[in-house]
Amino acid sequence: MDINNNPWWLLFSLLFICLSLNSHVSNGADTISANHSLSGDQTIVSSRGIFVLGFFKPGNSSNYYIGMWYNLEKVPELTIVWVANREKPISDRYNSVLRISDGNLVLFDESKTSVWSTNVSSTTSNSVEAVLKDDGNIVLREGSSNLTEFLWQSFDYPGHTWFPGMKIGYNKKTKVNQLLTSWKNKEDPAPGLFSLELDPKDGSNQYILMWNKSENYWTSGAWDADGQIFSKVPEMRLNYIYNFSYVNNENESYFIYTVKDSTMSRFIMDYNGQVKQMNWLDGPKSWFLFWSQPREKCEVYAFCGSFGRCNEDTSPFCDCMHGFKPKLEHDWNLEDYAGGCERKTQLQCGNNSLSNGKNDRFLKSPNMHLPEHPQSVAAGSIEECETTCFNNCNCSAYAYDNNECSIWSGELLNLQQLTQVDADGKTFYIKLAASEFSSSKDNKGIIIGVVVGSIAFVVLLGLVLFVYLRRRKRTIKTTKAVEGSLMAFAYRDLQNATKNFSEKLGGGGFGSVFKGVLPDSRVIAAKKLESISQGEKQFRTEVSTIGNIQHVNLVRLLGFCSEGTKKLLVYDYMPNGSLDSQLFHVKDSKFLDWKTRYNIALGTARGLVYLHEKCRDCIIHCDIKPENILLDAQFCPKVADFGLAKLVGRDFSRVLTTMRGTRGYLAPEWLSGVAITTKADVYSYGMMLFEFVSGRRNFENSEDGTVKFFPTWAANRIAEDGDLSSLLDPRLEGNADVEELSRICKLACWCIQDNETHRPSMGQVVQMLEGVVDVTQPPVPRSLQIFVDNQEHILFFTESSSSQSSQKRSNTSAASSQTKSTTSSTSS
Ligand SMILES: *[C@@H]1O[C@H](CO)[C@@H](O)[C@H](O)[C@H]1NC(C)=O
Ligand SMILES: *[C@@H]1O[C@H](CO)[C@@H](O)[C@H](O)[C@H]1NC(C)=O
Ligand SMILES: *[C@@H]1O[C@H](CO)[C@@H](O)[C@H](O)[C@H]1NC(C)=O
Ligand SMILES: *[C@@H]1O[C@H](CO)[C@@H](O)[C@H](O)[C@H]1NC(C)=O
Ligand SMILES: *[C@@H]1O[C@H](CO)[C@@H](O)[C@H](O)[C@H]1NC(C)=O
Ligand SMILES: *[C@@H]1O[C@H](CO)[C@@H](O)[C@H](O)[C@H]1NC(C)=O
Ligand SMILES: *[C@@H]1O[C@H](CO)[C@@H](O)[C@H](O)[C@H]1NC(C)=O
Ligand SMILES: *[C@@H]1O[C@H](CO)[C@@H](O)[C@H](O)[C@H]1NC(C)=O
Ligand SMILES: *[C@@H]1O[C@H](CO)[C@@H](O)[C@H](O)[C@H]1NC(C)=O
């Protein structure tokens, strides 16, 4: 596949060419010695040119730090990996100097005061020098001694980046816990509230994430040395890049890792409380977020601070509860929410100097995830519960649920707004000063109230009428047809149609989808797009391209809305929802039968063929997964969200990985930095085929905490060419065409081959599903095969798999011959 067939790829490249032009002054050396110091714009570079050390300034901050970054010739966006003077910035880099002083590496500021020092050596020898190594370690050594005998090394002082070869763990002798600490925010490398550390419990071999060294909010699960995974991080099975190992002896216990092949990869404790693995992609020249935990930002402890409210579906994720404002506005704008929110108006409770006669009141907040540490209070009714909270000046909120009254005192942490309609949200009442309520209750003079009330009613009626008429006028003015059948909707019309976006159908990486009804009673699904990086003209061009694509297996675009940043796409509503809900979540009585599954697989493949081969410009979907296959009333599949990868453009990689469930469907080439072709869709489609067969997610954490990865087991079964009925969803009770089952299983295995040239094209997939072309015996993909060697330690999908033979397959030669027959027409 040609790069030119993939326009968003081009966009990436163009954007980054500009950035790669700036570079730092370098004097070439990798060493700071008695007669070689650093000042101003000077840098040192590791011997193979991988890392650079020098002064830098993060973002718009006016502070300078000594830091280490990837050589800009390789990674054009400044990526800081280590900072020396994290807490003590300097302001004048030209009059500051990093040099060897009394046997230590010392940073002196403009007033010649030492602000940072390695603090180890007491020698005054002139031969001490500091060397920046290619693994990112700075080593202080005496003379030109062997680098393994050092006085000090930066690897013993981790910042927020965990380098390969760096130990994160506990030194039993020095009692030092060597951990990763986040930056405070994106402009301040000072240690923030979040850290990744080895669980300090004796003998524990798991990692934990801590907030302020006190609250544990995520646990990796124990290290399973045989499976090479942390028990609660099953997706490590699909990690071809990191090789972790655990060391525990009388002196220390720690984890260390190496990076396989030459992938540039970094592991960071981010300032937002998530640990992240990012891989550098040479193609688009950007960091690609491959993995992060906790998955949901709102799971990070106290992410939005006290009285801050986290919402997974909004950007930014944090805002303040009604009646509150950010305590530290500057930090808040840097996405540092730790300061939390404070009341705009103090409560009257307990303050006798406020004698304006207005009492504090409670604001109802529905659909919330309740904060931790409630106090249980005996109360017979919600009124009694409210009174209890009202009379206690320490009480800031209450909830009454299931005849149980809970109250909270003081500052509230971990407030979360839920938006999903079916989520188990609770109603929560927060205490506010009376003045925070726009229409305050006034019980003085009922008559006045009635009179005022009537006037208000008349005024209101007039207003409603006025607004209604104005809206009608606007509607007529703005919603019109463009580009053939495509409608340009006015935002207000969509707001009305969706009852102000009240019925959410789903949310994905590109934005949330809401159900609506148009005035002509046509039912629609309106998608509110997020992070659109395109200009108005481009957006319209792109949308009309998508609008022109019509196929029975593709969701039809009816129209769009584009008013400033408000960008929406309007589609036909699909009554049977998305495939995932039909395949995974439906109660046992209503599962999809085999025939329907097969037809959905075939229809989906036809839709993709149309995108890949029949459109004027080839469209790579990039996000094939059950969530994006919608089902109409007859269970005819319609592929959704195509063309959006292009619309979202540069931010796509970010969007992609924040999407729930996407990872299991990602083709390996997303990691290697080569151009993405239609074969990436084929891979995702293949992963989905396994789910058609099993009726379950490929990745599944079972109740007993074990990890199961269906494709590994299935691929081996298929390679043995035996009875495949054990792979089948037990709910089907064996009711499946044996021939079709075999075809779909073999095909799935071909689709997920590591090497994209071994995968069939979507056109070939259709032919195979139709039975026009035979499917040959597939090899087990190498990435799945790794686990075969560890046979007995892998917890497969069902018990019966344990009887499987563990012999290694020598199918490389078989693969190449079979590949020819399956992919003979792919090379065109
Ligand atoms: C540093 O200075 C010493 C003597 O002062 C000299 O021998 C040595 O070559 C110098 N090193 C460099 C790298 O210039
Ligand atoms: C720096 O400030 C400018 C203008 O205030 C703003 O547009 C830009 O986004 C800021 N950059 C960063 C990295 O915060
Ligand atoms: C070095 O030691 C001094 C005095 O003991 C201390 O104040 C300073 O924080 C230390 N610096 C570093 C970088 O550890
Ligand atoms: C450094 O020392 C180690 C062991 O102490 C030895 O294996 C290695 O060969 C030495 N390297 C050099 C460059 O002397
Ligand atoms: C973190 O803990 C320290 C003491 O353990 C406390 O003083 C500080 O207020 C805490 N920070 C936050 C943001 O709560
Ligand atoms: C992972 O690292 C360990 C220790 O360094 C090594 O023994 C093992 O062979 C490595 N595994 C792979 C798959 O590279
Ligand atoms: C532990 O430390 C002692 C003293 O430094 C050393 O002799 C011993 O070899 C170390 N043990 C291991 C397993 O590294
Ligand atoms: C009471 O209210 C007054 C006026 O708003 C305010 O200045 C004072 O700080 C409050 N006192 C307490 C204890 O909250
Ligand atoms: C309110 O908090 C203060 C200090 O934390 C405590 O002394 C007092 O007993 C509390 N009052 C009630 C009613 O819980």
From TrEMBL:
It is a single-pass membrane protein. Residues 1-28 form the signal peptide. Its EC number is 2.7.11.1. ATP binds at residue 528. Residues 800-828 have a biased composition (Low complexity). The chain crosses the membrane at residues 446-469. Keywords: ATP-binding, Disulfide bond, Glycoprotein, Kinase, Membrane, Nucleotide-binding, Serine/threonine-protein kinase, Signal, Transferase, Transmembrane, Transmembrane helix. SUPFAM superfamilies: alpha-D-mannose-specific plant lectins (SSF51110), Hairpin loop containing domain-like (SSF57414), Protein kinase-like (PK-like) (SSF56112). Residues 349-433 form the Apple domain. One of its GO terms (cellular component) is membrane. Residues 499-773 form the Protein kinase domain. Residues 799-828 are annotated as: Disordered. InterPro entries: Bulb-type_lectin_dom, Bulb-type_lectin_dom_sf, Kinase-like_dom_sf, Pan_app, Prot_kinase_dom, Protein_kinase_ATP_BS, S_locus_glycoprot_dom, Ser/Thr_kinase_AS. One of its GO terms (molecular function) is protein serine/threonine kinase activity. GO terms for biological process: recognition of pollen. It catalyses: L-threonyl-[protein] + ATP = O-phospho-L-threonyl-[protein] + ADP + H(+); L-seryl-[protein] + ATP = O-phospho-L-seryl-[protein] + ADP + H(+). Belongs to the protein kinase superfamily. Ser/Thr protein kinase family. This is Receptor-like serine/threonine-protein kinase. It comes from Dipteronia dyeriana.
